[in-house]
Amino acid sequence: MNSSNLNPANRALPIVLGSTSPFRRELLTRLGLQFSIDRPEIDEHHQENETATQLVTRLAAAKARAVAKRHPESLIIGSDQVACIDDRILGKPGNRENAIRQLSLASGRRVSFYTGLCLLNSASGREQVICEPYHVHFRTLDRSLIERYLDAEKPFNCAGSFKSEGLGIVLFSRMEGDDPNSLIGLPLIRLVSFLENEGVIIP
């Protein structure tokens, strides 16, 4: 559980982050909210003919609903993210060799990240769901740079094989999008609006 000095009167319902991602936890902490964490247990497989946008919005909502079963009077945050090159969805690499392949594929190209966000009021059943896109243009990467980066940061559990909040920035030529937080895994700008719609005052 994370907490801060927010007056509990400023929110009507407890907030639960339906994710065990340390990156999402850190991002949500920036809003100065008290919240708890619960792990969603869902099937995250990509369905046939499903677009990246459809996938992340479906999974974000599914994660929130799964957690809501254990928190019936709460605001549940669900999120999911994929990286794509030319509509090809890239998963988390899992190991060094897969990461080398992903970054070699990204070299000199634009990689699009799609982050699904759902805020579910488990008391009322109201869902707010969006997909936030963000695009990263990669420099031309040689094998030596890729290997040095991977050995330094080991981003094997990150979509796209990099950490933009760390050394991953050295791989980019430019970025484009409305909310750089979405690249890390949680679109805070849209989340603030969703929370305000539920009566949460920030700050």
What does this structure look like?
Helices cover 30% and strands 24% of the residues. With 203 residues, it is α/β, with parallel strands linked by helices. The chain has one domain: Maf protein, CATH 3.90.950.10. Strands 1, 2, 3, 4, 5, 6 and 7 form a seven-stranded mixed beta sheet that branches. The protein is elongated.
Structural class: alpha/beta
Which fold does the CATH topology refer to?
Maf protein
The count of helical stretches stands at 6
Cα gyration radius (Å):
17 Å
- Overall average pLDDT: 92
Count of the separate structural domains: 1
Helix content: 25-40%
Shape: elongated
What composes the largest sheet? 7 strands, mixed
- Number-wise, the strands total 7
Give the DSSP E fraction (strand runs of 2 or more residues).
15-25%
Architecture per CATH nomenclature, i.e. the level-2 architecture: Alpha-Beta Complex
SSE pattern, N- to C-terminal: EHEHEEHEEHEHH
Q: Give the quaternary arrangement of the chains.
A: single chain
Indicate the CATH class: Alpha Beta
The low-confidence runs, each spanning 5 or more residues with pLDDT under 50, are 1-11
